[in-house]
Amino acid sequence: MRTPIIAGNWKMYKTVGEAVDLIKGLLVGLGQVHGREVVVCPPFTALYAVRPLLIGTNLALGAQDLHYEPQGAFTGAIAPTMLTDVGCRYVIIGHSERRQYFGETDTSVNRKIRAALTVGLTPIVCVGEVKAERDRGEAELVVGRQVTAGLADLRPAEVARLVIAYEPVWAIGTGDTATPADAQAMHATIRALLSKQVGAATAATVRIQYGGSVKPENIDELMAQPDIDGALVGGASLKAESFLRIVSFQ
């Protein structure tokens, strides 16, 4: 049985002090939450300050990106071991904003996945279509390409260590959410693709999150779907009250 995983992507929000305050607020309510993994992904500047607060708790630390090289002259980049050094267990890879604004490609996603796995990080691999692609009936084609290319040449044991996040780009930060039925259909498609790529047994173990305007009002219905194993939460993860409601889904 797949353990649900809820991850908060804080994006480019929260100073160090604000990040610490938010973590303290989350920890007050998380003690009552069981049977799921909960991850927070603050900006790089807050990772070191947040880490001590999470020791011994049921809240895991993640980062929002990494470089695929172990070190080097890459100004502004963050190496995989720099993330493990500050206590990260997870890392988001291939978010649509990284693809749109920073030139991320399926090839670089593949390289980053490999780099993350090498140092023991769990990649949260993002895939999803833009509105024009969905309107043209190409959503499954686009997501299929991202899954196939992003996970190219990975062994089944490596794929089993991943989390995949399906985020329809048209729903991120817009207030629009794919219907639970539409989200479930894409999640089932992704699982079927994984089955062809690495086998049914491995595909059945991979957790697939939904992302895209996830909020307290829709989390219960989304999580009731058989192939939705969690959520990658954006704006609603920036306030303790709303994120705690999401991680406490019924």
Question: How would you describe this structure to a colleague?
Answer:
By secondary structure, this protein is of the alpha/beta class. The chain has one domain: Aldolase class I (TIM Barrel, Alpha-Beta Barrel), CATH 3.20.20.70. It contains twelve helices and eight strands. It has an eight-stranded parallel β-barrel with strand order 1-2-3-4-5-6-7-8, surrounded by five helices. Strand 2, helix 2 and strand 3 (59-63) form a beta-alpha-beta unit. The longest helix has 19 residues, at 180-198. The model has no long low-confidence stretch (mean pLDDT 96).
What order do the helices and strands follow?
EHEHEHEHHEHHHEHHEHEH
Average pLDDT across residues? 96
Q: Name the CATH superfamily assignment.
A: Aldolase class I
Strand order of the largest sheet: 1-2-3-4-5-6-7-8
- CATH-derived architecture: Alpha-Beta Barrel
Rounded radius of gyration (Å): 17 Å
Global shape:
globular
CATH class: Alpha Beta
Distance between the termini: 17 Å
